């Protein structure tokens, strides 16, 4: 069988404002082939696939499917051309049955009757053929995660998809489910389908794919046959860039305080998010005064649960958290009062209130204290003075502190939050993704401030997906994978390759 | 007490009243159901019912066939449904505020137009409403009009449409998880807009029932709580004058009848509540209009 | 059709939004006036004159505005904290009932208390009744996540039926010839007219005072800040350590109390007794007013007077030109929808695709 090109992307470029998500990316997919798409978060994988599927329209470039151009921006056209997508966050309605979810959009909306009987029969037939057993009449809410994914795949197969895009398909599966999924994928390949497989997990990528493409910062940086790739090499290409050496100076001091209880100590902690989903399992960690401990990891491995737990938003299920050897102040207000500062991951929705002016956001955590209020009334001049102080000391650029916070740029918003937290001179700071989406200048400034906090003796827990940032700041690094964390070892004992492996789950056992 | 209840539940007139009062509620609720199921709260129902009641009645008053009147009511409802969709689906405005705005707009437009057409009437002009289906020879149903039959038939029809057709599936999915609808190549905008139009059309028919079947006239005094008042409206003996009762005897068939008849419950009153209160009595000079009420000024 | 936020945040678009809304309202209403074969310019002139053209006109307008200011404030306070209280109508009735229950004559006996005690007791009872009526949906919302739009709306009907029950029962005025009407308030508790020979009562002062209190509360107190913060972004408020549930409950108590007060002010300032048609939808119009005022308490006062002016002015205009008075209601409805639309279009532009 001669190779047949089923999909051809040519020069795809997509910009969101100043950010270039995809920079003239070209790639091809052959019939019966598995193409793996590797890259860190924000590398542009999802944007590229959204363009292919018609959710976004590319600024430049074109797409051909089976030799025919694909009209941009129309999911319907992509579906008709034979492209199916298995979303990472399944596009399923929980309250409806598997059959309902699969059938939607496959019949004419004007048809007076839905042929559910024959459809269910065909679904059963497809399910048997590809090993995707799901009861069509079961409610999606009653299905396990693995079964939901099967519904998602059946949706594409039912529509006769010839090209299947799988976005992080194993991220939510147990190892056993992953093995079953791979068997399914192989049987699909045998029937002539072509797959695009998006993942961070290097083992899987090497096991399933024929060809590997690596994206970094919106650009296609490497393309190679899987047979010639190695894990270490892929990890390095994926993380890329020369890692800038830490700008911090090791300082004596915290070694002498070993006898004192650590600032923060988590002992075999278990917690689950309110929405369900992956939580923390058997999580142990400590942060001492004057050090930055970083938690690295691929998104969705429980970092958000860790951040919520330590921000006082989530309740502990089991285990113990200690703050300075004493009990953990388990509410946002108690934490602030106890001297624990928190910088949330989502500065727009959790960190600031966009519709309130800057000066009110500057006292969002401290408005109740004697400094800014008395007898139920607010001390507005004091709050404004405080806001001016933050703006001056943390270089927040704005037109006026009376402007609504929504109008600030991301960097300035982050500086405002950082100033609000750090001016209270907290002993412990929990920082989550502090430089996500910021320009280089703001990143450097925020790093400088975090290092300054460490220098004055504060303990910092940095949760980040940015390895450059972690190597630049951290004294010790722990890697999270599926709700568990490796021992937090000194930065010097990690290499890019070893951290990449640990993030992919490969090295967790080795380091414990 | 138990015996009284039994007498009431066994009486045909009770069930006739229940079905009669229930018809606009069935129609209106089916309309709300379509809107809710596609994910939009349609608080415009009260105004849409009033507008449908008015236009349907006006068409018949100007000589149209009764069924044409029903269609006109449905079309009016659909028009307001489209306006609702433009504002809440297209412009993503707050659903409840828009709903109240639509209610206010539809109600006041209907009243405005009514007063424009009939500037100086003291008694509302009437039409010949739907006749009871005596030919049916089914106990309770024979005393109803074809619109009640339509409402009863629509219940399984809407159920079938929602649960057994591709369009119904798309509608429910738009309410459950709009992202799925988009991912399957359908437009949430289109699905919700059409669902709102269809649901509001049913609300329009519910309104038309009030003027073309339950009563034979339109009252410009109907206001914000029209749908709520649906409970408090009662039908006069057929062919009699249309009236609006003030609510303390009419709408609740189980309330004791205080007209002096021997029946304990209003539903069993031979005069059909007609002398229960000053406003209900056909001979009362106070009649139906609240404007006729004496007000105490100081 | 897609909404795309403007990249720049121009103040001008936001400032011009109400202007566009007003223009749209006047143009669309002009079509209705023309439909009634009346001269558009003269109709608007007469409307203005009927609303604000004389001492009597001002008195009538302000009398109508008084309850509207209070219900508008009740809604504005609640909406600001993202508690969608659609139940001001029911809370108003609850307040009116409580006022009559405390200050009514009780079949001629009455409570033998001095007015200085009875008057505040009457207002407090009304506020409490309104507050408790809204507390129920607020608790359902914070405890079980029940949608307060539906519960508050339906409570309106329950409140109205309760009024109906009481007007036929304990509070029935025996001297009303069978009319469903409550006993009258003790005349000593009635609010004095502000101007000689005119209807406008000192209730207006109460309404304006409440507006000022709400303004100060919003801008200068800790609770007001919490209410605004919770309404603008509950996630961030919770992250910052605000007790979101408690703030919502306090908001509910305040909003319900103001609406209840509206009932007491209506009874003591205008009607002197409770009837089932006492409020021509003041609670609902309050929503319109609050939204038009951008939820600003002082804006509520201005908008309430403006809306009352339209309602009163339309009466006079209608008598002269024969344009139905319902024009006023249509104008209010169009103004609401136009204002919502124009504010949205000031922040987002529409992209057709």
What can be said about this structure in brief?
By secondary structure, chain A is α/β, with parallel strands linked by helices.
Radius of gyration over C-alpha positions of chain B, nearest whole angstrom:
20 Å
The amount of beta strand of chain C, in percent, is under 5%
CATH uppermost class of chain C: Mainly Alpha
The Cα radius of gyration of chain C reads 21 Å
Number of DSSP E strands of chain B:
0
Helix % of chain B is: 55-70%
Give the second-level CATH assignment, the architecture of chain C: Orthogonal Bundle
- Count of strand segments of chain C: 2
- The quaternary structure here is heterotrimer
Largest sheet report of chain C: 2 strands, antiparallel
Share of helix of chain C, binned: over 70%
Query: Which stretches of chain B of 5+ consecutive residues score pLDDT under 50?
Result: 222-298
Describe this entry's structure for a reader.
The complex is a heterotrimer of chains A (512), B (298) and C (353). Helices cover 33% and strands 24% of the residues of chain A. With 512 residues, chain A is of the alpha/beta class. In chain A, the strands form 5 sheets. In chain A, strands 13, 16, 19, 20, 21, 22 and 23 form a 7-stranded mixed beta sheet that branches. In chain A, strand 1 (5-16) and strand 2 form a beta hairpin. In chain A, helix 13 (380-393) packs across helix 14 (410-422). Chain C has a single domain, classed as ABC transporter involved in vitamin B12 uptake, BtuC (Orthogonal Bundle), CATH 1.10.3470. Chain C is built from 13 helices and 2 strands. Chain C has helices at residues 11-35, 40-52, 55-80, 88-103, 115-144, 148-168, 203-220, 222-232, 234-239, 244-271, 282-292, 297-321, 327-347, and strands at residues 2-5, 348-351. Chain C is globular and about 65 Å long. The interface between B and C is large, with 41 and 48 residues.
